[in-house]
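Figure 3 (text version): structure tokens given as input.
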């Protein structure tokens, strides 16, 4: 009996300690500097597919942003485990945001091939790079000045149009610090094959290049069944996303369709970069190629 009383007393003491700790935790009473919101063009998103995300910040009337903060975006599974991020700098630096202003912009995010299907949540914050400083915002707090701003549902990759990388590609590579970032370098000419969607579609090409290797920009030409459907130049080392509208009639009547990428200039790293032993012919680097039926 004495042991039972001791157990009860220990439970009560433990509960009081936990309650005291919770009460001792200071509430965030700092006035919010902005109200964030996030919307996506799809709420049901197959793995591997692109989603157009709209970020919106309603700056508070009394807010004064004196620093350039970075936008912290986390995509979490149902267990609150981090799946991937979309950290970025807003197109208008926060130091230029004005009281009462609405800052709105869009970003295309490719959902990684993460081993999860189901409900997911999106949290957002603003932080000063190189510090632990975060900005108080209005909204449902998720802890550490991070706020819940949206919910989506991830679907299996089988919902997508599958693209096969055929001739003219080097093997897949992944970033050393993030295994969800994958790419393939193309040679001078490279082909993709996919099943005919038999309706209008949008072709997404997520790419980058190394224009410093050339005196003039590379020109990339996109062919569909030998018809030129797009031409563009690689002028910066930044990643770009090309969206190319394709009509159903352009796919023809065959069950399978071949799309070809061609670049006018390539380089061999071993010939232009001191110390490099890479003898591959490289054109542009492709992170994602995706067909989205309309």
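Below: residues designed for each position.
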């Amino acid at each position: 009996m004495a042991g039972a009383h001791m157990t009860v007393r220990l439970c009560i003491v433990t509960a009081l300690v936990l309650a005291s700790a919770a009460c001792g935790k200071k509430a965030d009473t700092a006035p919010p500097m902005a109200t964030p919101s996030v919307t996506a063009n799809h709420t049901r998103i197959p793995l591997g597919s692109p989603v157009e995300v709209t970020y919106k910040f309603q700056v508070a009337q009394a807010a004064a942003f004196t620093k350039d903060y970075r936008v912290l975006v986390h995509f979490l599974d149902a267990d609150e485990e981090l799946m991937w991020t979309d950290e970025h700098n807003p197109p208008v630096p926060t130091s230029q945001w004005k009281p009462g202003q609405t800052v709105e912009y869009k970003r295309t995010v490719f959902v990684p091939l993460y081993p999860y299907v189901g409900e997911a949540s999106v949290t957002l914050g603003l932080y000063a790079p190189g510090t632990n400083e975060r900005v108080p915002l209005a909204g449902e707090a998720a802890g550490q000045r991070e706020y819940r701003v949206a919910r989506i549902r991830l679907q299996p990759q089988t919902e997508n149009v599958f693209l096969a990388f055929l001739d003219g590609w080097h093997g897949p590579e992944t970033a050393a610090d993030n295994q969800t970032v994958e790419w393939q370098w193309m040679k001078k000419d490279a082909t993709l094959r996919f099943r005919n969607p038999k309706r209008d579609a949008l072709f997404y090409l997520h790419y980058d290049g190394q224009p410093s290797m050339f005196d003039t920009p590379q020109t990339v030409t996109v062919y569909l069944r030998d018809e030129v459907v797009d031409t563009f130049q690689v002028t910066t080392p930044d990643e770009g996303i090309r969206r190319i509208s394709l009509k159903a009639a352009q796919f023809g009547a065959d069950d399978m369709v071949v799309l070809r990428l061609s670049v006018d200039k390539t380089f061999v790293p071993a010939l232009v970069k001191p110390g490099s032993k890479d003898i591959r012919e490289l054109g542009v680097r492709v992170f994602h190629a995706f067909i989205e039926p309309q």
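The longest helix spans residues 2-24.
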